[in-house]
């Protein structure tokens, strides 16, 4: 079946603008994750959804970052008033839920965000 | 706090030689350990995890709780092994975030 998809694949924006990044998880996966991959920082966790709720938002770097998930499926990551340090590849992943020792996460291709 | 350390940013190995990518972790509790791989222009994908105890593409990794290590090994490197490798951990039970190491770029020299 189809894997995790993300859109857009690339986004160039001006400092101060808002951006929305979209993630479509694998059908039936109730757990969804956002990560950020940047030079020198590696892969950083941002937020985790179980269904439509977010039990772990601990990785969001500031209140300019927010995310929502609707219908237990699609998720949107919004960055307000973008800054140059927000430039990175934003990765989305999904997995089955509630399986002990079964936390294999499937990753999307990412959205490359460039803030000028 | 949980942490994953991959001490080598870059590793070059001749084709046919053995490969070992190091990974050490710190975690209070029972972790699940993974190796993820990212080939050029491809998405991040799971290579193997300690609970399955299987060999994937000739790679193996053994969880050593005493040394808190999860090193990735392959006896004979192949050119197609060139990629970025990330060690990661999460809580064993349930769904939680993955904590990644900074990654090791492996280059196989023909």
Describe the structure.
The complex is a heterodimer of chains A (116) and B (110). Chain A has 116 residues and is mainly β. Chain A has a single domain, classed as Immunoglobulins (Immunoglobulin-like, Sandwich), CATH 2.60.40.10. Chain A is built from no helices and 11 strands. In chain A, the strands form 2 sheets. In chain A, strands 2, 4, 5, 6, 9, 10 and 11 form a 7-stranded mixed beta sheet that branches. A 4-stranded antiparallel beta sheet of chain A has the order 1-3-8-7, with no helix packed on it. In chain A, a hairpin with a 3-residue loop joins β4 and β5. The termini of chain A are far apart. Chain B contains no helices and 11 strands. Chain B has a single domain, classed as Immunoglobulin-like (Sandwich), CATH 2.60.40. Chain B has 110 residues and is mainly β. The model of chain B has no long low-confidence stretch (mean pLDDT 92). Classes of the chains: A mainly beta (116), B mainly beta (110). At the A-B interface, β4, β5, β9 and β10 of A face β6, β9 and β10 of B.
